[in-house]
Amino acid sequence: MGLVSPAMGQPSRFKAFLVDVDGVLVKGGEPIPGAREALSELKRMGDVVILTNNSTRSRARTAELLQALRFPIEPEEVVTSSYIAARWLLERAGPSRVWIIGEEGLSEELKLAGHTLVPPQEAEWIVVGMDRTLTYAKLADALRALLSGARLLATNRDRTFPTPEGLIPGAGATVGAIEGMGFSPEAVVGKPSPTAFEIALRVAGAAPEETIMIGDRWETDIQGAKRAGLATALVLSGVSSATELSHLDPPPDLVAEDIGRLVRLLTERAR
User: Fold this and answer.
1) Which end of the chain has less Cβ packing within 10 Å, N or C?
2) How far apart are CA 34 and CA 36, in angstroms?
3) Active-site residue flag, 22
């Protein structure tokens, strides 16, 4: 497959690149062919920020795993939905007493932001992310806390999460279980939320009009970035497929088989 022509009016050069992980750089726990070289080329062209909805890992852990696969990424170049949730809560409510339904990356980022992890009965906020040890007891604790006045914040609503063994339930399954008890989040801060792109742009030090989002999920990466005023590039190495392209509204500005082919196009446009 070739590339869809870029939308008219998009700049030939970008100052910053927001890049998703699963399905763009990595698939099945292994680097997608050509992805390492493509990421290195993007870093020569501008500032790169990894923007992922994965709430199970901290920024540091995400960078560590990418470095182990020989991707040139530092922790300060990573924005996870766990980090976004921690920053959102700090900026709107200040340091808070928090109980989580989630994993280590979420608790780590909340503590780094100055929040205090407490038992559910003491929580001002319940912060929810993907939780591979979700139990009925955790949901019961969440219900009691919410009935007592705790407020609910969700990292993202991703329905599924890719693993080497196939798709498994994502954070959306956890959020859905709580919504089934009659409580909806006050905010969902990961992609496609504007909050995710605002924080990523802040980290990149770039404006929306000089930034492009590179992702593999139309409903999060592309739709969210479009609403935030960014240019968009969809790669077909992950979730979205070529058969969906004619139905996507709004369409991505660029489409490529993978990030390697995408970067070659961007390099040609920048000459």
Assistant:
1) C
2) 6
3) yes
Of 232, 95, 84, 61, nearest to 171 by C-alpha is 84
Q: What's the CA dihedral at 50, 270, 246, 161 to 10 degrees?
A: -10
Look up 221 and say whether it is catalytic. no
pLDDT at 1 (0 to 100) = 44
**What fold is seen in the domain 83-188?**
Rossmann fold (3.40.50)
- Indicate yes or no: pTM above 0.85: yes
Q: Do 83-188 and 16-53+192-270 have the same topology in CATH?
A: yes
Q: Find the catalytic residue in 20, 131, 253, 258.
A: 20
- CA 187 – CA 88 distance, rounded (Å): 9
pLDDT in tens, 249-258: 889 999 999 9
Q: How far apart are the first and last CA of the chain?
A: 23
* Tokens encoding 105: 């990356």
Task: For residue range 109-148, list pLDDT tens digits in order.
Answer: 999 999 999 999 999 999 999 999 999 999 999 999 999 9
Q: What is the percent of the chain with per-residue pLDDT over 70, rounded to a whole number?
A: 95
Cα 145–chain centre separation: 27
Give the start-to-end residue ranges of the domains of the chain: 16-53+192-270, 83-188
Architecture of domain 16-53+192-270: 3-Layer(aba) Sandwich (3.40)
